[in-house]
Amino acid sequence: MTSTSTDTTDLREYTIATLAAFEAEADRDGTSLERAIVASCSQSLEELSQAPELLWIDVRVASSRTQPSLLAHAWAVDEHDRLHLAAALIRDGVADANQPYVFSKKDVTDVLQRMLNLAAHLRDGSTLAEETHPDVAAFAKKGRDIMGKLDPEVVLHLITPGQYRSSFPHLSLPDVAVTTRIHDINWFLRITRDEPDEQLDLRPLVGGGLPCVVASRDEEGEPEVLLTVIPGVVLADLYDRRRDELLRRNVRIYLRQTRKVNRDMALSARTNPRRFVALNNGISAVAASVSLSTDGSRIETINDLQIVNGGQTTATLHEVFNDRRNPVDLSELCVQAKITIIPPDVQDSDELATGIALAANSQNRITASDLLSGDPHERSLEIISRDRRYTSHGVETGWFYERIRGQHAGLLAIERHNGKIFPVDQVINKSYAAQLALAWERQPHISSLGGEKALATYKKALKRAAGGGALPEAGVQDFDSLVGLAIIRREAEGAIAAEGTLKPPLGFYLLAWLSEHHGGTIDLLQIARTGVLPERLIAVIQHATPLISRVMRTEPASVPHEGERPKKELCWAAVRTITLDDGAAATSRQRDFTRQDWQAALVWAEGKRNKALREKIMRAKKLVQTGKTATNREFLADVMKEAVEKGFKVDLKKVAV
Fold first, then answer.
1. What are the Abortive phage infection protein C-terminal domain coordinates in residue numbering (predicted)?
2. In Å, what is the CA distance from 378 to each residue of 228, 326, 374, 475?
3. Measuring CA to CA, which residue among 650, 615, 627, 643 is closest to residue 532?
4. Same domain, 534 and 604
5. Based on the domain organization, do 449 and 305 belong to the same domain?
6. In this structure, are strands 153-159 and 210-217 parallel, antiparallel, or unpaired?
7. Residue 512 pLDDT more than 90?
8. Whose CB among 35, 497, 568, 605 lies 3.0–4.6 Å from 31's, allowing a Cys bridge?
């Protein structure tokens, strides 16, 4: 793989911001940095239809005299029984000035080879020591089944926030089709762009371009809609090179050949390619601009081409063209196309593109979940988040809604100062937003299934509420409520982290329990506006969290593995019955220090010439966020006492010191 050209400074800033985002997610969820990186990539791969949801397993086996080393952080099996293995490659301790770290071909080859060794291990029917864990056992059983079939296929995904500049390593396994994909920092940057940035040069084609008819012109006489016919080879090659961006505005991901329409399309391409143009509905695309030949009869170049309808056609042609067992000659196959020119400076260009996609689609019915990140609900939340500001502890900041993964890091790459406006712990991506909302609606077991499943469920609920029509736009109150939920979850970080296990689902169950027992007294809009939780709510959270955690780890008893219990509705049925003993006394007792106590102290310390105290406060804040209050009470009390003596004001009567 060769990296695309990106300004060195921009790429460095983007890498720094991306790593900070991964570290923040890892801290929030109580997971490793590798898991946060894989989860981020998995979401993007699933949206782009390059892989199913990657399931975390973290298999690492050192080499021995009897076997080579094995590795896989995550896995999946797609509709064609291809085994996907994924691993993250990171380098600790790299100075900001040297970001992104450039990995050598040996670094990358070693990781890919370890994943391939694991595939070979499964092909041989061997077992893994980690199979005592149900997740690894499920992976090993399915992996052995896939690898035991005739001509199995393996897709290796190497994921890294570093950079890789060399060619693809060549790896092979006898009688196994091996595909390698490297998702480096350039890949992450490319998929954050809502618009591709590439000119498609069609002049090398026979005739010097694509024959076209100008169907309509704008008020100034410029082409507005073009009708043309595109060779199948051109479409297949375009998808191969730019699939990350080519379908970004498409209303659905590629459904592959599991649907009858796609199977028939593939059969048509194979058996009668010359008639494909007559049997297929063609594609609809948008572009920023085109250049025509002197006589206006041919398209010579297209800028920023996006297929908004016809992703099924494009991806199917790519698949049959690259079928290693039975490749198809597409030299005689053509596809009709309508290209609408939408210059970048046109107002509401995204809405216009989506409208074209919705109007053009006729081969498969569009559902709410097909709309992905381009739906009106997502767009409106994004727009609101960019303008909305909240004041907490005298500091005005915003909450960043990430409609496309990596947008926040991209913003920080443009200007580091944006990090003060949108701090890294004030980013909400669409999957996390769905999980928070479902938890508040008392469905924490759905939130615990994972971001993608929660998002699909949430979008279906929104569509039902809208009477089955288009997804509704969100309002300012909707966004403020979302921010309020995110603040509660963030401020409960210490109490959640102190429990040690089940950190993400525990956060969702806590929100659901609060909604069940205190929903009528919790003002989400007020919490959003101030960024601060009421004292009573903090006390309730600190008292209830360990009780909820205890039940989540044991119920339902019929489910043997602790990590699977929160995904069951019976777990929520048990948790919702929890009540606080002597509620009035419990909520008035002294509480532990919270993140918001130390955040207020940190804001106060910023204006003081006392670097040592600022560093102590920052350490104290980190200890609280990671749930280490109990073992560091003396240190925390001493630091707070020093801050108070120097002028910081906090109501210590309410805080256990």
1. 247-552
2. 33, 41, 7, 11
3. 650
4. no
5. no
6. unpaired
7. yes
8. 35
Does 612 score more than 50 pLDDT? yes
By CB atoms closer than 10 A (0-12, 13-18, 19+), residue 194 is: middle
In contact, 515 and 440? CB cutoff 8 Å: yes
Same domain for 301 and 395, yes or no, is: no
In the listed set 338, 363, 388, which residue is the last one of a domain according to the structure?
Answer: 363
Stretch 165-172: mean pLDDT: 83
In angstroms, rounded to a whole number, what is the distance separating the alpha carbons of residues 620 and 648? 15
Which residue shows structure tokens 């959270």?
541
585 inside domain: no
* Full domain range(s) for residue 161: 5-193
Other CB atoms within 10 Å distance of the CB of residue 652: 15
Rounded-to-integer distance, Cα 28 and Cα 106, Å: 33
Cα radius of gyration (the chain): 27
Q: How far apart are CA 217 and CA 7, in angstroms?
A: 37
- 479: nearest Cα among 435, 419, 418, 437: 437
Q: Give the residue among 165, 15, 21, 27 at the shortest CA–CA distance from 91.
A: 15
Q: Give the chain's domain count.
A: 4
Identify whether the C-beta of residue 542 lies closer than 8 Å to the C-beta of residue 495.
Answer: yes
Q: Is pLDDT of 69 > 70?
A: yes
pLDDT in tens, 199-237: 788 888 888 999 999 888 877 777 789 999 988 888 887
Does any domain span residue 583? no
Q: Are residues 375 and 484 in the same domain?
A: yes
Average pLDDT of the chain is 82
Is the Cα torsion angle 500, 501, 504, 508 positive or negative in sign?
A: negative
* CA gap 577, 516 in Å, rounded: 9
Residues 429 and 493 grouped into a single domain: yes
Contacts 24+ apart (CB under 8 A), 391-395: 391/529, 391/530, 391/531, 392/530, 392/531, 392/532, 392/599, 393/531, 393/532, 393/599, 393/600, 393/603, 394/603, 395/603
pLDDT tens for each residue of 514-541: 999 999 999 999 999 998 898 889 989 9
